[in-house]
Amino acid sequence: MTSANIPTTAPDRTLAAAGLVLVYAMVIGFTDNFVRVIAAEAGLWQFHATRSVMAWAILLGLMVPLGLRLRPRNLRAVVARSAIHGCAMLIYFGALAFLPVALVAAGLFTAPIFVLLLTRFAYGHAIGPVRILAVAVGFLGVLLVLGPEAAGDAESGMSLAALLPVLAGALYALGNIATREWCAEESAETLLGGFFLALGLFGLIGMAVLTLWPLSGGSDAESFIARGPVWPSGTFLFWTFVQAAGSLLGVGMMIRAYQLADASRVSVIEYVILPASALWSWLLWDETLPPVAMAGMALIALAGVMIALRARSTA
Questions:
Q1: In a domain, 177, yes or no
Q2: Which of 9, 44, 156, 302 lies at a C-alpha separation of 20 to 30 Å from 125?
């Protein structure tokens, strides 16, 4: 990571951003495959709080040798972006307690659509037909990867709970736009610190609430959400530390990518997280995907290639 500032008028460096997103996808795809191990040991809120403490310990340890700048230049903008991204992740994980995983993931990956709409109508950025087509192709690929149950659940889930993943996607999109529009002069490590601080505070609040008013969940997802603080095991601490270190690297690369290029381009390239996660699932757990999902991955890759080639021809 670097603490170099990116001025608001900096030209797009889409190809460099695409490389950073690829690193982010491979790292996060690996670490997220072990959330199932963490969920068997402790709850969501304790995981967020513990991971944030570890992430901040790593940041502080690297601050002097790497010359990291953690103090924000615009505190209000960093706090706002951190709160938005933190809320998006809490809603995403919280929806898992009530909805199928396919529907939740499909809702979160509506983010590129919201990025496209917000950058056009809120900030007046021009969007060409290539980017519009890339969003459509990438989202179709997401639906194919998730399977036919995602479309069925989306049609039948006409309730407030079914709107939560879409709300998470909208907040995630707004946070990604804020990375360049509000926080262009911030260092990547400053935004990383703010992100983990927000999630850590949310985690502490959740642990306090569940300590005072304990809940009991039925399904695995409900247990993960409703579980209060427990005495951490060595397994939980080890994989949470792996999550903290991996998230620092991966999310740092993602933040840097959104600082280097327009959010509507980067958000489409970010679709690569799905095939990256599937690759690690196959390598780690021998979980394979059906041919339809493989076709979806090809469409996701095509969407990213469309954006990259368009950026190169424009340059």
A1: yes
A2: 302
Supply the pLDDT for residue 222. Answer: 60
Consecutive 10-residue runs of the chain (315 residues): their mean pLDDT?
A: 42 82 89 83 91 94 87 93 92 69 67 79 78 82 66 49 78 88 88 93 94 71 79 93 92 87 79 79 80 78 72 59
Angle formed by the axes of helices 148-156 and 129-146, nearest 10°: 100
- Are 138 and 268 in contact by the 8 Å Cβ rule? The answer is yes
- Total residue length of the chain: 315
- Could you tell me the two tokens for 165? 């993943």
Q: Are 164 and 107 in contact (CB under 8 A)?
A: yes
* Alpha-carbon span 251 to 267, nearest angstrom: 13
Q: Which domain holds residue 205?
A: 14-314
pTM above 0.90, yes or no: no
What's the domain count of the chain?
A: 1
CB 102 within 8 A of CB 76: no
Q: Within a 10 A sphere around the Cβ of 216, how many other Cβ atoms?
A: 8
The total of other beta-carbon atoms located within 10 Å of residue 176's CB is: 29
List the structure tokens of 1: 């990571």
Backbone dihedral region for residue 27 (phi beyond 0: left; psi -120 to 50: alpha; all else: beta): alpha
Long-range contacts of 286-295 (CB under 8 A, 24+ apart): 289/145, 290/147, 292/144, 292/147, 292/148, 293/144, 293/145, 293/147, 295/141, 295/144
The dihedral through the CA atoms of 278, 283, 287, 289 has a sign that is: positive
Q: Is residue 27 part of a domain?
A: yes
**In the prediction, which pLDDT does 155 show?**
47
Residue 5 in domain: no
Question: What pLDDT is attached to residue 308?
Answer: 64
